[in-house]
């Protein structure tokens, strides 16, 4: 049970990063973007490509960072993946969502997001194959933290959790201490009033897409660092990410963070009492429970 709890916290940190971008998009643009989880896949594969490129150009970058399986090349590739995924999210909005938004309804946006998800998933499989891939094939041994109860932690897991928390703290500071953060929050709360006060709505929408894409890229790379990469990443994570968003409350960054940890811990702790095949149903149950008890989520507010 303790091991499942520790694994759940790690998974929760990844889900939180994915849920933050989704909750901002859902709150600002008022539609459920089912293609958001595919951005994690784009980020993971972009990092895989640039990891190989940087290691080939500068072989010393192929060295591992301390006890981690992560190399210096992958660290640089992460930055490239953030830029590419943010640009991809913005491009998808320009080519698809903005056009649908100007002519269709919110329901049309949801259907369009399903189409985008299928396209991204199949293009990824076409380019990289349907098999799983790894950032590193080196074996990183887990450290025995406790023998009774048994608790094993890998250095990569500690790094992912710490790095994810640092990203969340940095985002908190941006949203609460900068003019840009105030503008983003104003647009999310009341776009019309924000425009009247001089906020460029189009620029803020673009920023939300780029920000959400960048966070998704980080989540995708961190997921790949502790698991395997495959074109099915988006399919496997879309429901847990949505569950984290709904639990926390749509529009609440802090709710998305808490929701991610709740879903991650619940899904992994359930493995201790349920067969592994039933674990994917846990996010469904969490969504239903939250919608029945608190439809607006833990930190969500009712909208008129």
Automatic annotation (TrEMBL):
Instruction: Read off the Pfam families from this record.
Output: BPD_transp_2
How does this protein sit in the membrane?
Multi-pass membrane protein
Q: Which CDD domains did the record assign?
A: TM_PBP1_LivH_like
Q: Where in the cell is it found?
A: Cell membrane
Transmembrane regions listed in the UniProt entry: 6-27, 39-58, 70-92, 158-184, 204-225, 237-263, 269-293
Which keywords accompany this UniProt record? Amino-acid transport, Cell inner membrane, Cell membrane, Membrane, Transmembrane, Transmembrane helix, Transport
> PANTHER family per the record?
BRANCHED-CHAIN AMINO ACID TRANSPORT SYSTEM PERMEASE PROTEIN LIVH (PTHR11795), HIGH-AFFINITY BRANCHED-CHAIN AMINO ACID TRANSPORT SYSTEM PERMEASE PROTEIN LIVH (PTHR11795:SF371)
The similarity comment for this entry is:
Belongs to the binding-protein-dependent transport system permease family. LivHM subfamily.
Protein name per the record: Branched-chain amino acid ABC transporter permease
Please name the source species. Albidovulum marisflavi
């Amino acid at each position: 049970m303790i091991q499942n709890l520790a694994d759940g916290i790690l998974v929760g940190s990844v889900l939180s990063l994915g849920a933050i971008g989704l909750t901002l998009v859902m709150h600002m643009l008022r539609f459920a973007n089912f293609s958001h989880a595919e951005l994690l896949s784009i980020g993971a594969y972009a990092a895989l490509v640039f990891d190989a490129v940087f290691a080939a150009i500068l072989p010393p970058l192929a060295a591992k960072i301390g006890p981690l399986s992560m190399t210096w090349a992958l660290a640089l590739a992460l930055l490239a993946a953030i830029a590419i995924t943010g640009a991809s999210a913005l491009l998808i909005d320009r080519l698809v969502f903005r056009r649908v938004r100007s002519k269709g309804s919110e329901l049309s946006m949801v259907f369009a997001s399903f189409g985008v998800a299928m396209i991204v998933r199949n293009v990824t499989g076409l380019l990289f194959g349907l098999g799983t891939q790894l950032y590193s094939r080196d074996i990183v041994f887990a450290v025995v933290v406790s023998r009774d109860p048994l608790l094993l932690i890998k250095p990569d897991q500690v790094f992912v959790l710490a790095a994810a928390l640092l990203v969340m703290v940095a985002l908190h500071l941006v949203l609460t201490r900068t003019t840009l953060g105030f503008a983003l929050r104003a647009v999310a709360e009341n776009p019309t009033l924000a425009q009247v006060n001089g906020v460029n709505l189009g620029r803020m929408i673009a920023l939300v897409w780029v920000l959400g894409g960048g966070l998704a890229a980080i989540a995708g790379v961190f997921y790949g660092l502790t698991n395997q990469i495959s074109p099915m990443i988006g399919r496997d994570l879309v429901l847990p990410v949505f569950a984290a968003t709904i639990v926390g409350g749509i529009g609440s960054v802090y709710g998305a963070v808490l929701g991610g940890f709740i879903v991650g811990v619940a899904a992994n702790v359930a493995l201790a009492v349920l067969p592994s095949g039933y674990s994917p149903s846990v996010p469904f149950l969490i969504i239903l429970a939250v919608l029945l008890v608190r439809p607006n989520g833990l930190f969500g507010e009712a909208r008129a």
